Amino acid sequence: MTQPVSVRISVKPHVNGHRSASATAYAMPLEGPLVDTYGRVHDDLRISVTDRCNLRCVYCMPEEGLSFLPRHDLLTFDEIFRVARVARELGVTSLRITGGEPLVRKGLPSLIRGLAELGFDDLAMTTNGTELAPVARNLAAAGLRRVNVSCDSLRPDRFAEIRRRGHLAVVLEAMDAAEAAGLLPLKVNVVLLRGQNDDEIVDFAAFARHTGRIVRFIEFMPLDAQGEWDRSRLVPGHEVFERISAIWPLEPLSDLPGPAPAERFRFSDGQGEIGLISSVTQPFCGTCNRLRLTADGGLRNCLFSDDERTARDILRSGGNDADLALLFREAVWGKFPGHGINEPGFLSPVRSMSMIGG
Ligand code: SAM
Ligand code: SF4
């Protein structure tokens, strides 16, 4: 492996995040793991297979008027496979398929089958669950290991209010189908919105205890396409912890900070687990190991940064695997120490969550 040597490189200015003026910069290694200038090794890739969705969650998209990528801009399955293969060769061990809603893209099991053959340690998908039940077995047979199903309310009327389309009953059935297909452990993503579903924190904790599903409470992030994010609507992770542990004491599952964004807690009586994803109030940038590929082939090193490099141009202009590998290395090397949400000059990225892939 090439050892980084201590030489100065120029650092381009950027709106979000900042580098310390006195930080020593190193030459970008051309071998070995995907490491950035802060020593963070990147082994987790999220691939968005579409920016389209059949729902319109209030924290993600406007009800009407969002325009989507033209179909010819989307990477084909062959192109996605090729990028994933190069990522695997560069030491990426964990792959997640997301969107938009990944299951609105036709033929997904065939993509999963190809990706599974690349030998990732973890191959998962995040879905809104509306189209999952009928294909859960096919996905598992194709090699998908597990799913995260998003569900922000356990009350049908409120589910409809938040997600604007779709039905809670269908999503709950999808969770059963996923478990029956062996897509385990099943995680349930809940975005909390002050005044809208924060009175369901304890209900979701009870749900985690009764079902054995891992409920992950996610802070509302400034990534909605409408640009209406407001800090006052965010429910901080520490509040979730306090409200649940006042009823059922919780204990951390690990003392060691790892790359996973969720702080994991188990109920002290041994019945169930929850996670807190406090991206805004307790950023986990210091241990971030993630990269993202947008549906049109943009390689991104941070949800909140507009630093995006196109793999599609390489794929469609006869570029080789070495060109793709260099793109990965440059994307990682250009990563800033943090997302800067809590800094005064923070600007939301131009692309929103559904366009980037959450
Ligand atoms: N459509 C799929 C779904 O809803 O699970 C996958 C894509 S969605 C962008 C991935 C995750 O991001 C979901 O759990 C969703 O709830 C979450 N999400 C979307 N917008 C968000 C926001 N502004 N803040 C926090 N989480 C958000
Ligand atoms: Fe669609 Fe997921 Fe965004 Fe909801 S959060 S609108 S389901 S992409």
**Count, helices:** 10
pLDDT averaged over residues: 91
Beta fraction of the residues? 15-25%
Task: From the alpha carbons, calculate the radius of gyration and give it in angstroms.
Answer: 20 Å
Distinct ligands, ions and cofactors found in the model: S-adenosylmethionine, iron/sulfur cluster
Query: If strands are numbered along the chain, what order do they take across the biggest sheet?
Result: 7-8-9-6-5-4-3-2-1-10-11-12
> What percent of residues adopt helix (DSSP H or I)?
25-40%
CATH architecture: Alpha-Beta Barrel
CATH top level assignment: Alpha Beta
Largest sheet, described in full?
Answer: 12 strands, mixed
Count of domains:
1
DSSP summary, beta strand count: 12
Shape verdict:
globular
Low-confidence stretches: 1-15, 17-24
The CATH homologous superfamily: Aldolase class I
Structural class: alpha/beta
Distance between the termini: 32 Å
According to CATH, the fold-level topology is TIM Barrel
How do the helices and strands follow one another from N- to C-terminus?
Answer: EHEHEHEHHEHEHEEEEEEHHH
